[in-house]
Design goal:
Layout lengths: L1 H25 L53 E2 L10 E3 L9 E2 L1 H17 L5 E3 L17 E5 L23 H21 L5 E3 L3 H13 L10 E2 L9 E4 L18 H16 L8
Parallel strand pairs: 2-4, 6-7
Antiparallel strand pairs: 1-3, 4-5, 5-8, 6-8
Helix pairs in contact: 2-3, 2-5, 3-4
Length: 288
């Protein structure tokens, strides 16, 4: 009887400890962004944001932040800026017409760009995204004001190339069919990665019917639902050479990789190899 009573007390203590742990977890604030990237738990990310695969994690790089981030405030009091390309291991480049003051956005948007840039370079070593305007209020944009929007470019891969104003030659004219298909596949892959890393909560403006058709079919088969309605749609003629990407307001930041890509050695190796290959070839993709 004494042994039975002791077992009951032990089980009661374990149950009480588990209940206490659950209460403690529920009290974690929704968004408490640290000065330096850390784990999703330490950032207080909601449960819905913790199930992304390891490939949808922002790389461990120092991110410039506004002061509000350090005390757990939300956008617009807390804003992130895209790190300089060199600091991020050349996962991406900055669009030639984008200034640093237009590289600020919500933490969710910036971590999404970082994660998708890493995924793209892992899939296509030696290639990288070009990141344009994030928050950029002014005459050039009717949007880009709420931390939700970013322009993304894939030089040489999208339907046209923005060389300069009114000079936008086709990237597909004169190409063999398999070459055009390979370029469009990269554009579709970028759209898929954006959808995967946001659980489908995305809208992309882009004008290329074959890309749109293929992406929408995949999106539907995955069972995603976008709060914007149709997740990819055509817009004005300027959207032949870039994606205009929108995410929901105050989207939670994606989790970060541990320092030095610990726990994701394949991504670390691929990123290092791509950078080494690019350096040995004397530079990155032209047209930045």
């Amino acid at each position: 009887m004494a042994a039975l009573a002791s077992s009951i007390l032990l089980l009661g203590g374990l149950f009480s400890g588990l209940m206490h742990s659950e209460i403690q977890e529920a009290e974690v604030p929704e968004v408490a962004i640290p000065t330096h990237p850390a784990s999703p738990r330490s950032m207080g990310l909601p449960t819905a944001q913790r199930h992304h695969s390891s490939s949808c994690r922002a790389p461990d790089v120092a991110i410039p932040q506004s002061k509000g981030c350090r005390i757990g405030l939300l956008y617009p009091s807390c804003r992130f800026r895209m790190p300089d390309p060199e600091a991020a291991g050349y996962l991406y480049d900055r669009w030639k017409r984008t200034t640093l003051d237009h590289w600020w956005g919500s933490p969710g948007l910036v971590t999404l760009i970082l994660a998708v840039s890493a995924k793209y370079q892992q899939e296509y070593p030696g290639e990288s995204l070009v990141v344009g305007d994030l928050d950029a209020p002014g005459p050039r944009h009717s949007t880009h004001r709420k931390g939700q929007d970013v322009d993304l470019y894939l030089p040489g891969m999208m339907r046209t190339e923005n060389v300069r104003r009114y000079v936008r030659p086709s990237n597909y004219e004169g190409q063999r069919s398999w070459q055009v298909a390979a370029k469009r596949a990269r554009v579709v892959e970028l759209a898929k990665n954006l959808a995967i890393c946001t659980d489908g909560r995305i809208r992309i403006y882009y004008n290329d019917e074959p890309v749109e058709r293929r992406f929408l079919k995949w999106f539907t088969m995955r069972g995603y639902k976008s709060p914007f309605g149709k997740p990819m749609r055509r817009h004005n003629y300027l959207h032949r050479f870039h994606f205009h990407v929108s995410v929901p307001e105050n989207m939670s930041p994606l989790p970060f990789n541990p320092p030095s890509f610990a726990g994701n050695t394949d991504l670390a190796a691929d990123t290092h190899e791509a950078h080494a290959l690019d350096t040995s070839q004397g530079g990155r993709t032209a047209g930045r």
